[in-house]
Amino acid sequence: MTGPLTSAIKASKRSKLFFLKQYLRNPFGTGGVAPSGRQLAKLMVAKLAPQPPEIIVELGPGTGSFTRELLAQGVEPANLILVEFNKAFVKFLKKEFPNLRIVEGAAQDLPQLLTGLGQFSVNKIISGIPLRSMKPAECRQIARAVAAVLEPGGLFVQFSYFKASPVPKAVAAEVGLVGQCVGGVLNNVPPAFVWQYVKSA
Question: What is the pLDDT of residue 30?
Answer without folding.
Answer: 47
